[in-house]
Design goal:
With about 150 residues, this protein is α+β, with helices and mostly antiparallel strands. Among the domains are: about 80 residues, Nucleic acid-binding proteins (OB fold (Dihydrolipoamide Acetyltransferase, E2P), Beta Barrel), CATH 2.40.50.140; about 25 residues. Strands 3-2-1-4-5 form a five-stranded antiparallel β-sheet. A hairpin with a 6-residue loop joins β2 and β3. The N and C termini lie far apart (about 110 Å).
């Protein structure tokens, strides 16, 4: 559980100090190694707001660990976490890509179908429409009549 507090003492020679919890209670020991990785090398300022977790050292004394400076990095951390895709967002992106792929392939197949249907020259379509009615009027013996007519 994170606790908020302020840096009440700091010793530059030993790189350690103490934090006063915001809700009261005993002061908590803190050293430079307890600060987050990206904050190493930056000297903490007195009365600076800090956020930390409690831990016990070998002797059973309270000490701060995973100390963060919310006033400096709070906004940046929130922006980074909001921009980072979660597994749920990744899943939605994958589903959206799959749906888009299906729609694109269906559109391509439909356009290819339209090109094949309308791709025939109009002459062939008209000839096919004219031949069918004539053959249907002549009936079953049309071939025989043509063959006989061609002999004479």
């Amino acid at each position: 559980m994170r606790i908020d507090g302020t840096l009440s003492q700091w010793n530059d020679n030993d790189n350690c100090g103490s934090i006063s919890p915001a809700r009261g209670g005993p002061e908590v020991f803190v050293d430079l190694a307890a600060f987050a990785r990206h904050e190493h090398g930056q000297r903490p300022l007195l009365q600076e707001r800090l956020s930390f977790e409690l831990a016990l050292d070998r002797n059973g004394n309270l000490r701060a660990r995973e100390v963060r400076r919310p006033s400096r990095y709070g906004m940046l951390a929130r922006l980074r976490s909001a921009a980072r895709p979660t597994p749920r967002k990744r899943k939605r992106v994958g589903q959206g890509a799959a749906i888009l792929l299906v729609i694109a392939s269906a559109a391509y197949m439909f356009s290819a179908y339209l090109l094949t249907v309308s791709g025939q020259p109009p002459d062939q379509l008209e000839e096919a429409q004219q031949v069918l009615p004539i053959e249907s009027q002549e009936g079953l013996y049309a071939d025989i009549r043509r063959t006989v007519a061609s002999l004479y």
